[in-house]
């Protein structure tokens, strides 16, 4: 388990700074695919940082929602990383990103039906068996819905978690973005998820655009600070769940390290308010 | 492998002066070992120029930055509608463009 | 065709309408929302290429580079989930991309940038210490047949163009490109020393020598091939390069005919 602290997405730009200054951060999270390389600085720095901090391994390329078998080579590469770095947690997305021979490098949406439910559960069973550990499944940020869906997203996720025994990675920003995009109430959406199975929270920033009707269309860009509405939702979530490991994500327009550290500290202060303990 | 062995023996038989003896090779390696033991000689002579590389991680789970339309344009990559010419530091080199280059007329005319 | 097949093919072809069965709560045109996914894929892959080939982007300018990268992305999307490996085919694509033909050295600069990234992520293998190398001097007759393992980061790029000078100029605030003659042939040795990737401007014959050693040829064969390239090949300087950068990871002494013991 990760500590009930705030953590930060680890960016190569900050490797040296972290090793030199040893900031008081609860954990770091890395995107697994960036470390699926034979050797060199990525492994050098991650190994050093892992000596001092808990680690969350977050996959972005497994394509659990694909209508094709999982890529065994990719599962093997994940197993190698888990063996090498012993992360406290491994998580992936409710989405697909590979099709045929190609990797599309986006977290693409799927309809929620009995068929896709069976497939996602099969895939998660395979992942957990292959890796020998439970995984956390992250709720997606989506921009469209499928008219063929017969289940709500929250029912779909709840059923996947019930059947496979996996945990929930609650991305509060994704919940907010999707709810605005699909005209739902974010608080109600989150309450409909199995929060007792949530072991980690993600917080990130979004970009605001408009759809063809001029209604808001939020993009999960990870390019901005966490929005006020999302912080508000987060404090509500903590009231329901109690202190839970919380990641600050920033992947685009990465600011100086101190700016991210301030966001981490803010999340930590909410965690303390919610009854969490800082060392 | 067999090919290289043949060419080696041919050279040895027909032109011994081109084949280094083991002794000469040992001498060369010995010299190299002593030169390499002295730091930075080569740098001082300007033989080597070195630069680091910046770190980067390319996979992430964020959406692409910018606007929704940046990835959806159809016009600018259809071959018959290509209107761009290289306009970067290549224009500063001694011979910025080859005389056969596609689009080089506009580039030259602008100079 | 499966739902995801239709979805995927529409993603990479903006001329296609978005797939049937997609909807928005307000009944708005789903094409505009689908465009978010198109944008994410194309822009993120162009960004990945721009990160791998920064000097190429400087050479032709951002607008041209991104437009060229877009053609490549749509024609050859990645096959690996590991984006740092994306773009191995980009230099060959540039060779065939006619709008870039006025910058004939662009593809070789791309090759150099690709080699640098591969060196950066290559496997960690400990180099041999000086004692191990000095040890082979104790049996000179076995030197001509010596073969070696070279560090996996090491690669040689031999170009008809001044690929090193062009690349190096862009590592400085003031490129001073006016002093670079792009049509001057150059050979570059790429390697990783510790955590740093290095580019070293070497003689063509030294490049031949390194290449033969990487191919597991004998020291004698490598020396002969280098001499055939340039009679003035300097063996001492080439060996010094190997030793100074510590890129020998194993030695396999043989007899004078290159046969292993």
Automatic annotation (TrEMBL), chain A:
Top-level taxon of origin: Bacteria
A Pfam entry, by short name: MbnB_TglH_ChrH
Gene3D superfamilies, per the entry: Divalent-metal-dependent TIM barrel enzymes
Membership in a protein family: Belongs to the UPF0276 family.
Protein name, UniProt field: UPF0276 protein MDG893_02880
Naturally occurring in which organism (per UniProt): Marinobacter algicola DG893
Automatic annotation (TrEMBL), chain B:
InterPro entries, per the entry: DUF2282_membr (IPR018740)
Residues spanning the signal sequence: 1-36
One Pfam family linked to the record: DUF2282
Name this polypeptide is given: Uncharacterized protein
Keywords associated with the record: Signal
From TrEMBL, chain C:
Domain called Putative DNA-binding: residue spans: 4-94
Superkingdom assignment: Bacteria
Classification via InterPro entries: DUF2063, DUF2063_N_sf
Pfam families given in the database record: DUF2063 (PF09836)
Protein's name in the database: Putative DNA-binding domain-containing protein
């Amino acid at each position: 388990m990760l500590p009930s602290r705030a953590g930060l997405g680890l960016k190569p730009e900050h490797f040296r700074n972290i090793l030199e200054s040893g900031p008081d951060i609860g954990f770091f999270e890395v995107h697994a695919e960036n470390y699926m390389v034979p050797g060199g600085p990525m492994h050098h720095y991650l190994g050093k940082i892992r000596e001092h901090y808990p680690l969350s391994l977050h996959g972005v390329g497994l394509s659990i929602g694909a209508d094709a078998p999982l890529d065994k080579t990719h599962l093997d590469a994940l197993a190698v990383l888990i063996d090498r770095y012993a992360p406290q947690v491994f998580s992936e997305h409710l989405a697909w990103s590979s099709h045929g021979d190609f990797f599309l490098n986006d977290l693409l949406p799927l309809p929620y039906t009995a068929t896709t439910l069976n497939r996602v559960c099969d895939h998660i069973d395979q992942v957990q068996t292959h890796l020998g550990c439970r995984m956390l499944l992250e709720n997606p940020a989506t921009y469209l819905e499928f008219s063929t869906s017969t289940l709500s997203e929250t029912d779909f996720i709840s059923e996947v978690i019930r059947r496979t025994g996996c945990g929930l990675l609650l991305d509060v920003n994704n919940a907010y973005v999707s709810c605005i995009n699909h005209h739902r109430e974010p608080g109600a959406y989150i309450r409909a998820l199995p929060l007792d199975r949530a072991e980690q929270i993600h917080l990130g920033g979004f970009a605001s655009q408009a759809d063809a009707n001029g209604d808001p269309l939020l993009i999960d860009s990870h390019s901005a600070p966490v929005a006020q509405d999302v912080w508000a939702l987060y404090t509500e979530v903590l009231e329901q769940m109690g202190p839970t490991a919380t990641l600050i994500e920033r992947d685009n327009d990465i600011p100086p390290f101190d700016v991210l550290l301030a966001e981490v500290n803010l999340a930590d202060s909410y965690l303390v308010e919610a009854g969490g303990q800082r060392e | 492998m067999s090919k290289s062995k043949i060419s080696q023996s041919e050279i040895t038989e027909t032109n011994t002066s081109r084949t280094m003896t083991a002794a000469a090779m040992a001498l060369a390696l010995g010299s190299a070992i002593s030169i390499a033991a002295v730091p930075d000689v080569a740098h001082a002579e300007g033989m080597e120029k070195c630069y680091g590389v910046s770190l980067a991680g390319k996979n992430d789970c964020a959406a692409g930055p910018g606007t929704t339309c940046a990835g959806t344009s159809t016009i600018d990559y259809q071959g018959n509608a290509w209107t761009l010419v290289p306009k970067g530091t290549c224009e500063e080199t001694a011979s910025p463009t080859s005389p056969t280059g596609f689009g080089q007329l506009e580039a030259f005319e602008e100079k | 065709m499966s739902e995801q097949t239709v979805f995927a093919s529409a993603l990479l072809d903006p001329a296609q309408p978005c797939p049937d069965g997609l909807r928005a709560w307000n009944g708005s045109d789903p094409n505009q929302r689908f465009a978010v996914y198109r944008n994410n894929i194309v822009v993120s892959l162009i960004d990945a290429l721009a990160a791998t080939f920064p000097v190429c982007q400087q050479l032709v300018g951002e607008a041209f580079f991104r437009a060229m990268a877009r053609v490549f992305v749509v024609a050859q999307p990645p096959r690996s989930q590991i984006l740092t490996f994306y773009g191995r085919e980009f230099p060959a694509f540039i060779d065939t991309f006619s709008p870039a033909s006025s910058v004939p050295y662009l593809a070789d600069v791309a090759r150099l940038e690709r080699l640098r990234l591969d060196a950066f992520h290559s496997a960690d293998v400990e180099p041999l210490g000086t004692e191990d190398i000095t040890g082979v001097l104790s049996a000179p007759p076995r030197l001509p047949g010596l073969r070696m393992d070279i560090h996996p980061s090491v690669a040689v790029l031999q170009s008809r163009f001044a690929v090193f000078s062009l690349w190096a100029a862009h590592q400085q605030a003031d490129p001073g490109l006016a002093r670079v003659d792009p049509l001057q042939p150059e050979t570059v040795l790429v390697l990783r020393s510790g955590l740093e990737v290095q580019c070293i401007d070497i003689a063509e014959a030294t490049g031949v020598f390194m290449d033969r050693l990487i191919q597991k040829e004998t020291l004698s064969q490598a020396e002969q091939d280098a001499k055939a390239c340039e009679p003035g090949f300097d063996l001492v300087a080439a060996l010094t390069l190997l030793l100074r950068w510590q890129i020998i990871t194993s030695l396999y002494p043989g007899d004078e005919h290159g046969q292993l013991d």
